[in-house]
Amino acid sequence: MARVISVEVEKFPIAGSFTISRGSKTEAEVVTCTIRDGENVGRGECVPYKRYGESVEGVQAAIEGIATQIASGLDRRSLLDAIPAGAARNAVDCALWDLEAKASGRTVASVLAPQAAPLETAYTLSLGEPETMAAQARLNADRPLLKVKIGGGGDDAARIRAVRDAAPHSRIIIDANEGWTNADVEHNLAAAAELGVALVEQPLPAGQDEILRRIAHPVPICADESVHQAADLDALAGLYDAINIKLDKAGGLTSALLLRDRARELGLKIMVGCMVGTSLAMAPAVLLAQGADFVDLDGPLLLARDRQPGLEYRGSLVFPPTPELWG
Questions:
Q1: What are the counts of helices (DSSP H) followed by strands (DSSP E) for the chain?
Q2: Is residue 48 domain-shared with residue 166, that is, in the same domain?
Q3: What is the pTM of this model?
Q4: In terms of residue numbers, what domain contains 131?
């Protein structure tokens, strides 16, 4: 019996709005791939990202374009060559992992992370004026790790200071989303160091970051938009100290595992991050993130409504997925 593939576009409201240097949104629009093989069903979720030239319609069409190959038994390794890295491949890859788990009776956790444990995730504060960001920080000052969106023009050092003053005991990651320039990067890095920031993520636009090779790194600098797959890593030597692995960038868990392992060989710190999606998108990333230096898998915490069943969150702890959700 051939597999049956379906693709669905779903929308989940965000609690309030989510703002970064490239704009704001009030809902998470996700694409879910479902693969049925007899009584077994595997699911994977992705979030198309305009920054990488993706759209919901394009991702849906890409998955439907390889539906015949999937129905005929396409496996995860062959998938790496069948479709480029990106959101569409992620949804299919994660659905295949889930399907394999359901068919074998062995969870993905038992294969990849038998000692999988709860992880401390960052909680994201949206970009705003310093006083607005300080108010967000005060509401979340009991969280041990905050991720702060900056890089939207104005005084980013003031934004960082406002958050630090409002949440003096939290570790802080700042994410400029490519919003800094050669003219302000050193000033902003120095301010981050002064305020005890733990990590600075993607300060400069991808491909326009050569200055990072020549300037001091008083705070570790993490590549996000500059890295998608393991093949990207050699070009980052001397530029970055860490990488942010996202399943939607890497094109699935299979590719993300290769990226993680190669980064570790090169001595880079590992961050596992996410787009704003539901627990179905976060579930495989929780397993990928076991042993990571930084974890940013708070997507469901930013939503007004998540899937049921979803991941279990207790404060800033996120627990490994149950098979009812994924894997």
A1: 11, 14
A2: no
A3: 0.95
A4: 112-318
